[in-house]
């Protein structure tokens, strides 16, 4: 038995457990929501990003706290990420009070939620699922809006507030990601944590952080027997994803093209031009910037149908992961992709459904063909 452990095998004393997990540094947030005309808020450290595509957050709240019931009732919550100098604000929202918002500057967010003006970052979430775990409820929320300022986050460690530098872990994540996209490791290759940490000359915690993020990106998967494994990517995966996107966008063209406003079309054009500027000749100026801009343009196009179910379905396609695995494995592409998307925007400006349909189909076929070209150099899988 390890020193300080208590209880029989398979059980841990609650006080000892609290002491041990206190060594896990975590970010400090204030969860806020609103029911009727009443605002609710509480300090929470059991909050984390759950998914990138679609963007989702996880918040774990003790059922004994009024905010848990309030979030259940409202179906939405905001995550206010605190900065390193906001320890007193964290304590204020962690202390029972009839008015936790006293002397706190607050504004109203996109979902009508109270946002702490001085927080380092804000994420507004709509609850899509709840899970009960012991004394707590886990709220899985789809991110509806997000914004961030500059500064360092406040963290909680061993019962106190402090600061934590994330630059090193982000740098390690970037290095591992580059190894995978450069195909240093083949598809279905297991990545032992110790081996990866030794290769990068970092501690295992940093390597584990990288693998966890890469799992969210869809580049690795967790195998119960082998650990983290390079997720294979093949023609079938590509075809199914791009065909699904096409089906959604064709539906949007049928539903929305006749009623889009001039302002909406202008915004679609603006997003297209942001994306197009990141491809010069046949080379990406900034692939990840291009990927984000491409996703932003197509997500906005889908939103023009004003159908939340379509937008939600689009968000679950993992388009970014597919494009990262394929297009991101080479610095070059073709202006044909930009041209096809440009024709799609032109068709929206002319309110021409036939031209929009042809452009969407052409763009889909170009994407699938490009993936086939890339896979031809890798034996059919990435």
UniProtKB/TrEMBL annotation:
It comes from the Bacteria. Pfam families: FCD, Flavin_Reduct, GntR. InterPro entries: Flavin_Rdtase-like_dom (IPR002563), GntR_C (IPR011711), NADH-dep_flavin_reductase (IPR050268), Split_barrel_FMN-bd (IPR012349), TF_FadR/GntR_C (IPR008920), Tscrpt_reg_HTH_GntR (IPR000524), WH-like_DNA-bd_sf (IPR036388), WH_DNA-bd_sf (IPR036390). Residues 166-233 form the HTH gntR-type domain. The keyword 4Fe-4S does not apply. Gene3D superfamilies: Electron Transport, Fmn-binding Protein, Chain A, GntR ligand-binding domain-like, Winged helix-like DNA-binding domain superfamily/Winged helix DNA-binding domain. Keywords: DNA-binding, Oxidoreductase, Transcription, Transcription regulation. The keyword Transit peptide does not apply. Belongs to the non-flavoprotein flavin reductase family. PANTHER family: FLAVIN REDUCTASE (PTHR30466), FLAVIN-DEPENDENT MONOOXYGENASE, REDUCTASE SUBUNIT HSAB (PTHR30466:SF11). This is HTH gntR-type domain-containing protein.
